[in-house]
Structure formats: C-alpha cells, structure tokens
C-alpha cells in the first residue's frame, strides 16, 4: 500500500501531531478526519470535543457538520454550547484546537469570512463560528489546509481567527496567554512558526515534493528552516484506517 495521495499524506501527517493526552477541539472537514485517524491508530485515549457540545465522541463515520447526530450518539456526554465555550474552552481545559480555513497568511491568521472587500465581497464564506474563540483559548492550534496561492496569501482581506497577528510577540501584547498556531500541515509540507518572528517556515517536506512546488504554490516568499526533514510516508495501517473511515462515511452519507 505504498501509493498515497497528497490529501492522504496531509491527513495522516496531521493525525500524527496529536497524542493520547490531548483534549482536542475539532473542526469539521479535514481536521475531523485527522483527529479520528489519530483516535483509531496511535492515540486511542484522545478526547475529541466538537463545537455542538459533544465530549469524548467516537464517531464511526465523519460528521457532515457539528450538528451531525453521529457526534451526540457516540459521545460520553453532551453539554450546552454556552457551557462548552464558557467552562471548557475559556476555562483552559482544552489542550489543542484543530482548524482549517479558506485563507491563511504567513503569521497563521485565518480567514473564513469574505474574499475581497467586506461590504462587496467576491465570495461570502461560512464565517467564523467558534473558530475565533478556539484560536484564542486552546493551549495550541494545529491547522490543516492544502497549499495553494489561492489559500496561502500575502495579506488577508479579513482576519477571522487570530494566529500570530503581526508576528513577534503580538499575541502577548494583546494579553493572549495561549501558544496559538504551532503547526500548519499541508498536502506538500509542514510549517511551523519561527521562534522569534512567528513567520511560518517549512520544516518538513512530503516524499516526492520539490521545494520549487512549495514556492510556486505559496502566495508569499516562503522560508525554509536551516534543517528540513522528509515527512515519513504513511504506514499501511494509517492508510487502511483513513480509507476505511472515508469509505464508511461515503456509504453512510449516500444512504442518507
């Protein structure tokens, strides 16, 4: 099972970022796939939390939205949304948030609101939902997005979720005590913020990807760490688990 797609590599690399000890606030889509692959492989004791208030959920298929009944049916318990945000999230009980976005800049700020001017946008996006609060209050944030000039832009038209702001110690100056984004996982590489400037820097390149591909698909002059490693390719077990849950999800949603 040596053949894999860039999307599969991205999802599995994202899953590997999680540990058994994490209490993780999960976004819908790619973050949800990554978190559940982690749960079904190396991190069976991870606690997955979704915005609708489901705690310790173990879905058999990936949810279509935070309101998917699969989440409540398989959760240890469900709390009201205000409790989820006021007690669990703002109370500092969640170690990791896993988010995606439509656009991201070099300081890992996310846009899920509009493309173009706010009053007359080219595209009206779904909005922030709980992502701004997740980005501010989780211990750290992982982000998963496919690398493209459309998504990785020099300047965001709108900042929905705070990453590292203008870079440097901007989060600290605003009184934010959490780490913010610590890793961005794409279909071509993995990026981490520079310790000082907080600018996203390539630290790992997926097998078969050339640096030129990364440069061509990024909307800013992307930087590479002094030592860049090759991302270990997916194992047979990781691929099998990911493909199985995707197949179950497709079958369930088609039947519905």
**How many domains comprise the coordinates?**
1
Got a strand count? 14
Mean pLDDT: 95
Tally of individual helices? 8
Q: What is the CATH class designation?
A: Alpha Beta
How does the overall form come out from the CA principal axes? globular
Instruction: Give Rg in angstroms.
Output: 18 Å
Keywords:
8-stranded mixed sheet; single chain; Glutaconate CoA-transferase subunit B; 29% helix; globular; Glutaconate Coenzyme A-transferase; alpha/beta; 8 helices; two-stranded antiparallel ribbon; 256 residues
Describe this structure in words.
The protein has helices at residues 6-16, 30-40, 69-73, 81-89, 131-137, 170-173, 211-216, 236-255; strands spanning 23-26, 47-49, 54-55, 77-78, 96-99, 103-104, 110-111, 114-115, 123-124, 140-144, 181-185, 189-193, 200-206, 223-231. The chain is 29% helix and 21% strand. The mean pLDDT is 95. The protein has 8 helices and 14 strands. It is an alpha/beta fold and 256 residues long. The strands form 4 sheets. It has an 8-stranded mixed sheet with strand order 2-1-5-10-11-12-13-14, sandwiched between helices. The chain has one domain: Glutaconate Coenzyme A-transferase (3-Layer(aba) Sandwich), CATH 3.40.1080.
């Amino acid at each position: 099972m040596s053949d894999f797609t860039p999307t599969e590599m991205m999802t599995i690399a994202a899953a590997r970022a999680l540990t058994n000890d994490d209490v993780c606030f999960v976004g819908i889509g790619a973050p949800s796939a990554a978190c559940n692959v982690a749960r079904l492989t190396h991190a069976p004791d991870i606690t997955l939390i979704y915005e609708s208030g489901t705690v310790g959920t173990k879905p058999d298929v990936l949810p279509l939205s935070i309101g998917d009944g699969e989440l409540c049916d398989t959760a240890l318990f469900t709390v009201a949304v205000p409790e989820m945000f006021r007690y669990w999230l703002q109370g500092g009980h969640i170690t990791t948030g896993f988010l995606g976005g439509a656009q991201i800049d070099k300081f890992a700020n996310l846009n899920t609101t509009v493309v173009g001017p706010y009053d007359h946008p080219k595209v009206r996006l779904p909005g922030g939902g709980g992502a701004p609060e997740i980005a501010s209050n989780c211990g750290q944030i992982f982000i998963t997005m496919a690398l493209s000039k459309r998504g990785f832009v020099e300047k965001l038209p709108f900042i929905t979720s705070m990453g590292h702001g203008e870079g440097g110690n901007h989060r600290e100056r605003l009184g934010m005590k959490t780490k913010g984004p610590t890793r961005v996982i794409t279909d071509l590489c993995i990026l981490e913020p520079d310790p000082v400037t907080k600018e996203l820097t390539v630290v790992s390149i997926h097998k078969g990807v050339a640096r030129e591909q990364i440069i061509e698909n990024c909307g800013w002059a992307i930087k590479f760490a002094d030592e860049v490693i090759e991302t270990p390719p997916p194992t047979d077990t990781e691929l099998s688990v990911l493909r199985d849950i995707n197949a179950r999800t497709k079958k369930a949603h088609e039947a519905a």
